[in-house]
């Protein structure tokens, strides 16, 4: 998504800003811009559509040299990706870059127009520049003006601001979109991700929600959400090699499993308003297009297909939209009948999955309303060729067995469900506000599930000498069971199959004996009692049960029944939470079996062949 870099130093900061943008660019961009308070004492900017390299080339012809500046890579949510809409946005002396979405931008725009401000872009961001300029009339100090400005903003923002009349500082505000201060000697920096600043420092101060910061060459002052002056701890960044380093973890897969709270948090950042999902997170035309959607067709492969299967339950139950889900290798060769006003959704970690890409290309001939990609790689073919995109923020996934890509896809799909329901007015009252709140808490809940690591490691011993396993789930937990069984197959090479628990008696029960562990996920929902009956059917045949159950589900350990209590969670979000112990289970079984966890036999990470 968008990237922010800012700097105040004794030296020329333009090359630092550009290098920072380049480091953030892999997350997505459509234009880039830089504003510098030049050594000639003027606030100047250069903006270009396209990649940071276009901006860099333009700077070679029109250099900007100065000691104070801000820069931005944009991924448009309001207004087309073009130079006019690229950040920084100016208003008088003020320059602003912004990550996120201002929900009340229309009302603010009207107010500011009536005060005589002239808008030169279609972005929501420009209202911030004018509002701040306006507040400077009453508050001489830039931080005081910024504090007054953010009080009037609804939505999500990470902001960096400079002002030509106060050229000794970058000021910043964080709410729903991350910002980090990079600490130097006699120079300080700001960015939306520390990655952008690793070239200049390894000491960072992370802003918290609601913080406002005043960053000068030799000082940093921070105020919290209540306006109190606060200190934020300065931390030395030690994990040198970013994603390509396993750190303290034995395998990339385990590291990536443990990254899930952080990457889910990142995937949510800038996409949640106070009580609503910010629909424009899917792109500037999303609201208009979503209003027309009457059906959803999801196409994906492997783990991404399982994410799509979960989404079908959400889309039909919460948003009341009919949804079909199909594996791409089947969809692409089938004669498909397209329902009117269908949104074509693809899901892929790499965005280069050959079957999914081919399905998208076919779909373009079939009369779908529009295409949407849920993808982890911004520069991928799938993203480039789709009308709308939601980038997951899982970061680089190295383990072949997908983990954090899956949970961030689920988050993206829930955002899609709520956005479609919101725009079409089909959500039950209160549902969106509740789920937005639950989504905010989700990273903490995932952390609680990860704390079960050693319990799951112990349970894994039950599988080490087994050759076959069944995974059972009901409702949206059925695809979670499918994903659990796929993980186990992929990395431990144990034969695993997933069934909807109600299907057991229609065949697979014949397989059950004391050599067949049966894994079940059991949140506390209206299907719990039915699930319990299915589990009795297994126990009656001597099957060993391993049940991941809600702490309130009333399930207890007994002969042949191993219950692992899960933290309670809102039922809609349970597929995301219950995925975690199943990932850990496959991981520890594979470790016990001594397989190559990160690079299992016969498999590859990004399946770019048919
Ligand atoms: N709403 C702003 C910034 C978009 C953004 O943060 N994208 O990730 C715009 O459309 O310019």
**Number of spatially distinct domains:** 3
The Cα radius of gyration reads 25 Å
The major sheet is characterized as:
8 strands, antiparallel
Instruction: Give the strand order, joined by hyphens, for the main sheet.
Output: 3-2-4-1-10-9-11-15
Report the CATH topology name of the largest domain: Glutamine Phosphoribosylpyrophosphate, subunit 1, domain 1
Mean pLDDT, to the nearest integer, reads 92
CATH architecture name of the largest domain: 4-Layer Sandwich
The level of helicity is 25-40%
Structural class: alpha/beta
Molecules bound to protein: glutamine hydroxamate
Spatial gap, N to C terminus: 30 Å
Function: Catalyzes the first step in hexosamine metabolism, converting fructose-6P into glucosamine-6P using glutamine as a nitrogen source.
Keywords: Aminotransferase, Cytoplasm, Glutamine amidotransferase, Repeat, Transferase
Enzyme class: transferase
Subunit structure: Homodimer.
Walkthrough of the structure:
Residues 2-218 form the Glutamine amidotransferase type-2 domain. It is an enzyme of class 2 (transferase). One of its GO terms (molecular function) is glutamine-fructose-6-phosphate transaminase (isomerizing) activity. This protein is of the alpha/beta class and 610 residues long. The protein folds into three domains: 1-234, 4-Layer Sandwich (Glutamine Phosphoribosylpyrophosphate, subunit 1, domain 1); 243-426, Rossmann fold (3-Layer(aba) Sandwich), CATH 3.40.50; 450-602, Rossmann fold. It is built from 18 helices and 25 strands. The strands form four sheets. Strands 3-2-4-1-10-9-11-15 form an eight-stranded antiparallel beta sheet, with helices on one face. It is elongated, with a radius of gyration of 25 Å. The two termini are 30 Å apart. 56% of the residues are buried. The mean pLDDT is 92. Glutamine hydroxamate binds at residues 1-2, 74-79, 98-101, 123-125, 270.
């Amino acid at each position: 998504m968008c990237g922010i870099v800012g700097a105040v130093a004794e030296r020329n900061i333009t090359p630092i800003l550009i290098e920072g943008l380049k480091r953030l660019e892999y997350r997505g961009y459509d234009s880039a811009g830089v504003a510098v308070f030049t050594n000639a004492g003027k606030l100047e900017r250069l903006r270009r559509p396209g990649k940071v390299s276009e901006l860099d080339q333009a700077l070679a012809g029109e250099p900007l040299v100065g000691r104070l500046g801000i820069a931005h890579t944009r991924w448009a949510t309001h207004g087309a990706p073009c130079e006019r809409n690229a950040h920084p946005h100016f208003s008088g002396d003020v320059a602003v870059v912004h990550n996120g979405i201002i929900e009340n931008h229309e009302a603010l725009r009207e107010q500011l127009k009536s005060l005589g401000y002239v808008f030169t872009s279609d972005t929501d961001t420009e209202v911030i520049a004018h509002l701040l300029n306006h507040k400077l009339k009453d508050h001489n100090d830039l931080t005081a003006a910024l504090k007054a400005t953010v009080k009037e903003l609804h939505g999500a923002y990470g902001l960096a601001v400079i002002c030509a009349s106060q050229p000794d500082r970058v000021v910043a505000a964080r709410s729903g979109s991350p910002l980090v201060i990079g600490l130097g000697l006699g120079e300080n920096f700001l960015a939306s991700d520390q990655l952008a600043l690793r070239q200049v420092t390894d000491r960072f101060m992370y802003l918290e929600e609601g913080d406002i910061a005043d960053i000068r060459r030799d000082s940093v002052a921070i105020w919290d959400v209540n306006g109190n002056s606060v200190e934020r701890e300065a931390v030395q960044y030690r994990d040198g090699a970013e994603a390509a380093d396993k750190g303290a973890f034995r395998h990339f897969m385990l590291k990536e499993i443990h990254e899930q709270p952080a990457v889910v948090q990142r995937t949510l950042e800038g996409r949640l308003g106070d009580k609503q999902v910010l629909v424009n997170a899917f792109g500037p035309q999303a609201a208009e297009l979503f209003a027309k959607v009457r059906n959803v067709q999801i196409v994906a492969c492997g783990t991404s297909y399982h994410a799509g299967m979960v989404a079908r339950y959400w889309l039909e139950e919460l948003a009341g939209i009919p949804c079909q889900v199909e594996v791409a290798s089947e969809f692409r060769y089938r004669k498909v009948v397209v329902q009117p006003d269908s949104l074509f959704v693809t899901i892929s970690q790499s965005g280069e999955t050959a079957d999914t890409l081919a399905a998208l290309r076919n779909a373009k001939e079939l009369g779908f309303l529009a295409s949407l990609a849920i993808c982890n790689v911004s520069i991928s073919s799938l993203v480039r060729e789709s009308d709308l995109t939601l980038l997951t923020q899982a970061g680089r996934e190295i383990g072949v067995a997908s983990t954090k890509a899956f949970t961030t896809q689920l988050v993206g799909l829930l955002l899609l469900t709520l956005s479609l329901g919101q725009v079409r007015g089909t959500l039950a009252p209160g549902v969106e506000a509740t789920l937005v709140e639950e989504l905010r808490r989700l990273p903490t809940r995932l952390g609680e599930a990860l704390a079960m690591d050693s319990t799951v490691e112990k349970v894994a011993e039950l599988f080490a000498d087994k050759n076959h396993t069944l995974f059972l789930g009901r409702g949206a937990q059925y695809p979670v069971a499918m994903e659990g069984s796929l993980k186990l197959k992929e990395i431990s090479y144990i034969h695993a199959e997933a069934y909807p628990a109600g299907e057991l008696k229609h065949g697979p029960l014949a397989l059950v004996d004391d050599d067949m562990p049966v894994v079940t996920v059991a949140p506390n929902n209206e299907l719990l009692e039915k699930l319990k009956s299915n589990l009795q059917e297994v126990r009656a045949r001597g099957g060993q049960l391993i049940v991941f159950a809600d702490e309130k589900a009333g399930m207890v350990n007994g002969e042949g029944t191993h219950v692992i209590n899960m933290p309670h969670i809102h039922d809609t979000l349970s597929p995301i939470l219950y995925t975690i112990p199943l990932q850990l289970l496959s991981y520890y079984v594979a470790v016990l079996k001594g397989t190559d966890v990160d690079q299992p036999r016969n498999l590859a990470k990004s399946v770019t062949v048919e």
